[in-house]
């Protein structure tokens, strides 16, 4: 309907559709999807009450979604009173919607009470916390904002960028919050998080407004040699020191390769067999994730040809190569031509794991075991592994090592054309500071691969 209907009109509409089961729920879904006026949905609720004498939880929840998405916060308060009076408890969906709506109004502190209720049953989401933190900041209550932020972090949740944005905006020009804001930047550094432009702008403004500190922010980029084009200072090298490399290698071997999680992906016997294989071989220069590299070609009949082209290019460069594959790649099929697989085994050392195994632990072990010069070829993200590493500093080293050692095929592999790899930058693309300067890489990429790093930088310098 494009206007509110009377009870009689709703009944006629229902009959004309053959009196479907759950008519009211289906109808409110349709109203929500079409962005209908609230009055039309209200008239549906009146009809449902007349038909059944009550309003179901599900119908009220759908109506609540309509109110919240349309910004009808006063109506939300009425729905809240009805639901609190009619039902003994609220589930996640309703609580989240109420927290979002209350946080936008003068009644935002009631959202804090709602959060306490939610915590008795389940862990609130970072979005729940973020909504209330933004409200607290807006109403000048930084004490509540920081307390909720600390709670969110203690629960191991990842804040949304809007939450950081709110904190930077709220704490602007207030020196007492400076340490807390720097803590956010260091958290982003340790977890390979890049701010989006809007957050980078708030970071810039908050530094520039710090009383008596004379910070200046500029939008800039880096030279190929890793110098800031604005202040000329040298960005951190992508290379790990010998000490950092050893520290990372020890942690990866202990926490990932020997950690409990690894045997969800392989067997202890297979891993030991692989370790013995690696010990017998010379140090590798490059380890290739065979399946991952082959699958960059969407044409499934060219998988072995794609892998062969990449291995041939690495061999041409005089490198000692290890190819990690799966046993099914050795069974001659249209995708895996025997001739190509034989050539690959002539050009490179090869190890084929069981088909149920995951290649990551093998790839990490072989690359790290070979030494700091050894790189790996894969488009994989290895996101799971950072979770196994115990602390921010080790995670940061892992990402840095990955960015500095990951070779990615540039474009597509085409027959009879040399394979090219994307060049590895000399500097590390991560938030960094030297005390009187900060360099913050930023862009608006939502879901990035590890090798996709921002090209734009915010340079913050302090005049002495």
UniProtKB/TrEMBL annotation:
Q: Which reaction equation describes what this protein catalyses?
A: Endonucleolytic cleavage of RNA, removing 5'-extranucleotides from tRNA precursor
InterPro entries cross-referenced by the UniProt entry: MRPP3_PIN_dom (IPR033495), PPR_rpt (IPR002885), PRORP_C (IPR031595), TPR-like_helical_dom_sf (IPR011990)
Instruction: Supply the alphabetized keyword list.
Output: Hydrolase, Magnesium, Metal-binding, Mitochondrion, Nuclease, Transit peptide, tRNA processing, Zinc
Cofactor(s) this protein requires: Mg(2+)
Q: What is its main location?
A: mitochondrion
A family per Pfam: PRORP
Q: Please report the residue spans annotated as repeat (PPR).
A: 125-159
User: How is this protein named in the record?
Assistant: Mitochondrial ribonuclease P catalytic subunit
By sequence similarity, the record places it as follows: Belongs to the PPR family. P subfamily.
What are the annotated GO cellular component locations? mitochondrial ribonuclease P complex
User: According to the lineage, what is the superkingdom?
Assistant: Eukaryota
């Amino acid at each position: 309907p494009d206007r509110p209907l009377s009870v009689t009109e709703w009944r006629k509409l229902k009959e004309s559709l053959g009196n479907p089961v759950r008519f009211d729920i289906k109808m409110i879904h349709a109203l929500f999807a079409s962005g209908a006026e609230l009055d039309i949905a209200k008239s549906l609720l009146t009809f449902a009450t007349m038909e059944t004498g009550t309003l179901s939880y599900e119908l009220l929840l759908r109506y609540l979604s309509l109110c919240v998405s349309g910004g009808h916060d006063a109506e939300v308060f009425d729905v809240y009173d009805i639901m609190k009076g009619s039902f003994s408890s609220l589930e996640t969906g309703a609580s989240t919607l109420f927290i979002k709506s209350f946080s936008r109004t003068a009644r935002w502190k009631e959202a804090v009470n709602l959060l306490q209720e939610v915590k008795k049953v389940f862990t609130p989401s970072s979005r729940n916390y973020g909504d209330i933190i933004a409200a607290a900041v807006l109403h000048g209550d930084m004490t509540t904002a920081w307390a909720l932020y600390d709670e969110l972090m203690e629960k191991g949740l990842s804040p949304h960028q809007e939450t950081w944005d709110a904190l930077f905006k709220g704490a602007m020009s207030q020196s007492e919050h400076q340490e807390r804001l720097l803590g956010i930047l260091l958290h982003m550094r340790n977890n390979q998080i890049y701010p989006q432009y809007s957050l980078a702008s708030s970071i810039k403004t908050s530094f520039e407004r710090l009383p008596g500190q004379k910070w200046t922010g500029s939008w800039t980029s880096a030279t190929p040699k890793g110098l800031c084009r604005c202040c000329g200072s040298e960005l951190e090298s992508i290379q790990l020191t010998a000490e950092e490399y050893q520290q990372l290698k020890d942690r990866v071997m202990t926490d990932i390769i020997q950690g409990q999680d690894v045997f969800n992906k392989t067997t202890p016997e297979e891993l030991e067999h692989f370790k013995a294989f690696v010990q017998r071989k010379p140090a590798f220069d490059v380890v290739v994730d065979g399946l991952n590299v082959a699958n960059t070609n969407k044409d499934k009949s060219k998988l072995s040809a794609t892998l062969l082209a990449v291995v041939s290019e690495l061999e041409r460069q005089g490198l000692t190569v290890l190819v990690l594959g799966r046993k099914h790649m050795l069974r001659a099929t249209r995708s895996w031509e025997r001739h190509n697989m034989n050539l690959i085994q002539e050009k490179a050392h090869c190890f084929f794991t069981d088909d149920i195994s995951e290649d990551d632990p093998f790839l990490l072990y072989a690359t790290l075991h070979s030494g700091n010069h050894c790189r790996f070829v894969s488009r994989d993200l290895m996101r799971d592994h950072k979770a196994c590493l115990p602390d921010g500093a080790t995670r940061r080293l892992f990402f840095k090592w990955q960015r500095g050692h990951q070779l990615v095929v540039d474009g597509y592999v085409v027959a009879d054309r040399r394979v090219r790899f994307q060049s590895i930058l000399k500097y590390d693309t991560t938030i960094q500071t030297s005390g009187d300067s900060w360099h913050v890489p930023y862009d608006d990429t939502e879901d990035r691969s590890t090798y996709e790093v921002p090209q734009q930088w915010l340079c913050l310098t302090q005049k002495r």
